[in-house]
């Protein structure tokens, strides 16, 4: 394989981010792994080969500009751009009276301002090459603002607004923009603690998520999907 | 290939229905081709081999019962059930004041009562075998009731209600139920007359629709999609 | 008061229908009370004065034509038309495998074909007089197809499609079309049996529903609402 | 009238904000008029009497805390809290490639962080008094992310997420939370320049908007509406 194209995964943790990186790597992409710290991404880059680990804080405009410069100088042309920052890993549900306004702004920034800023660097090239996909990871909180979930709903809605505006502007220019909603618990140690009796497919499997991202990138141009909701067969909705 | 499983396509015209039948046939399915008249389906069945053409009027309960009996006695076990009756082929937009109530009921029946009745015959076996997909074809009129489109919106909404109720009842029992919304004009001679300057991918291509149906049937169980909206890259929405 | 205008309530039972009739009667409307049987509506008509009880089966086109003729010959010009047929009073949730197709068609007819047919008789006059409202009663099942609720979701979605198509066609012609979604249990003896501990406002009060219908009819023309969801303060959604 | 209760209007310009303030003033409320500059609000406060003009930048947490303190020390108890910051007055549609990330964050802050922070100060008292409404003004961009409208869609979606989360948490505690979507152009000199032939009701009239806000505050507890979309009769949607 020639690795003449890059898949950027912005927000590469050990769950969905890593699975998505692995899946596009197998499809012949060089992968750029963006994360606030490079502890995990460096070892993942070594494992994959043809991969670059880049530190990037998606809530910080300057950090994003530096990451964009690195991607453009060190990686093949970008064909896929994945925004996978969820950062809900440490989230605990709670009344909106207790939300710290500054933390909320940081989280919103990482879900909308950051993806916008990075796209401003990378989209023009994709449009010029007339090919590419921008894939945003959302969650149940992208679909509804629930009691005790304001802290994730507000950033998630801001992300969806960006994705939808981008889709309507850039799909006619040949860029496939999708918003993927993971409507269920994703497989993880923490999820298994809550749901000890869950069967193997009752939690969303990162490798299955990744297969759907690759599918979206390859979806035929006459039948593009903007919003793709994914949930386990057993999930209540 | 062994053809030990059947894909039923209820509503098999020369566009999406035929493409879906061809696609599942290539995947190793026996296909049961249901249509009000068997002129087209007989010749398609001959072309495909391992196919059965069955006349069926989806607005008529008795005709459905007869078709179900034929499927169950002459075909391998049903694994995929596609409801593709649109029947909008002769539709002309117009004020709701001009709709014939009896024609409306016939159209609603073909989109909800009929699919329900056929499912009542075939779903129990699929549940018992713990495997299968039921795929409903929808359209823009499934998403919104527009001026001058009441005649298609009312049946389309009734179909979506059935699909969504079925999904919530049967997904936890292992049956993947999807509602596919074709949000754009489908390639056809008539569509080309309206849009003579459309590029090759500017109209929905039936073979691309069919690829998405096969994808849905094969979607991993931890990441099932209920509603899949498909539209050309250039479509305004 | 002069009673120079009529409010038609199609589907007048002792709950919301009667409350809506009372509220418009107080606003100075003659009320036409349509119901399959005239047992209840006759006594309500006597109570209200300036009211006409008319038998009408909304699933039967001929019965509708007769009712329309009676309204047009015996009542002042129609200014408000309320479709309040729910008929869920005897509904018991259950698997869609047990739905009788013919009963489903009857229920769909009463929720979409019937309201369409009656509107075909009465709307042209309202448009000519450039004034009027058509108000459709919906329910939770208008918003989602749930497991075991297919029998109400399918007719409810068909009703919403009619309302939305009518709104988009007739609002620009000066007719206010609204779809009111009652997203909660309505006060009734049966509801109190299920929820014996419900507070006075925890169930939807028919008089409150009626106040919202009057509000919609009086809503200023520069700020019309199509869909109005009503739910008790305590309701989970 | 006794003016024993306050209506806070956060975002009081000469259009909807002033109309809402006038309407609640007529209903017997003391009104607190929050705006970044007090040029307009001071003169409106003089006109109304029983009104307090308070400078407040809703994108600045410290400014909000100061405004909250002033409201709590100088005004009667808060019963209605209106978030009317749109700030789209200077907005020009344009590609998302040209959005300044820092301006986007400022706008998001004013639509979600700011309303959250002010609510954190004022909601606990409303909950204690078991009475009150929080009303958020939204726009077409709250419903969909359109091409060239990312700059308003992202803040608008963040506002809707806050409103919906707040509704689900606080409605059961007796606070009516609503998100009002103005789906059309609002009457203004600028709007008349775009649409010189618009009739008197073809643009949303601020006094009509205000009447709907008062209606929502008075809506009976058994039939509360969360989202209220308002559009002119002639509007395409």
Automatic annotation (TrEMBL), chains A, B, C, D:
<dbReference type="Pfam" id="PF00106">
    <property type="entry name" value="adh_short"/>
</dbReference>
<protein>
    <submittedName>
        <fullName>Short-chain dehydrogenase/reductase SDR</fullName>
    </submittedName>
</protein>
<dbReference type="InterPro" id="IPR036291">
    <property type="entry name" value="NAD(P)-bd_dom_sf"/>
</dbReference>
<dbReference type="InterPro" id="IPR002347">
    <property type="entry name" value="SDR_fam"/>
</dbReference>
């Amino acid at each position: 394989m020639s690795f003449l194209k890059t898949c950027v995964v912005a927000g590469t943790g050990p769950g969905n981010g890593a699975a998505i990186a692995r899946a596009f790597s197998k499809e012949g992409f060089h992968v750029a792994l963006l994360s606030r710290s490079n502890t995990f991404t460096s070892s993942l880059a070594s494992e994959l080969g043809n991969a670059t680990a880049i530190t990037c804080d998606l809530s910080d405009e300057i950090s994003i500009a530096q990451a964009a410069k690195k991607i453009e100088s060190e990686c093949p042309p970008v064909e896929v751009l994945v925004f996978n920052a969820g950062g809900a890993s440490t989230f605990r549900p709670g009344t909106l009276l207790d939300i710290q306004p500054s933390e909320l702004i940081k989280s919103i920034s990482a879900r909308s301002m950051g993806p916008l800023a990075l796209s401003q660097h990378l989209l023009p090239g994709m449009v010029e090459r007339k090919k590419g996909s921008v894939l945003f990871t959302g969650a149940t909180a992208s679909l509804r603002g629930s009691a005790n979930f304001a802290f994730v709903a507000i950033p998630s809605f801001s992300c969806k607004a960006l994705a939808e505006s981008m889709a309507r502007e850039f799909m006619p220019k040949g860029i496939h923009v999708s918003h993927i909603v993971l409507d269920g618990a994703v497989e993880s140690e923490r999820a298994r603690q809550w749901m000890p009796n869950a069967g193997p497919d009752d939690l969303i499997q990162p490798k299955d998520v990744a297969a759907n991202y690759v599918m979206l990138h390859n979806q035929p141009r006459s039948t593009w999907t903007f919003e793709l909701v994914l949930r386990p067969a057993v999930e209540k909705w």
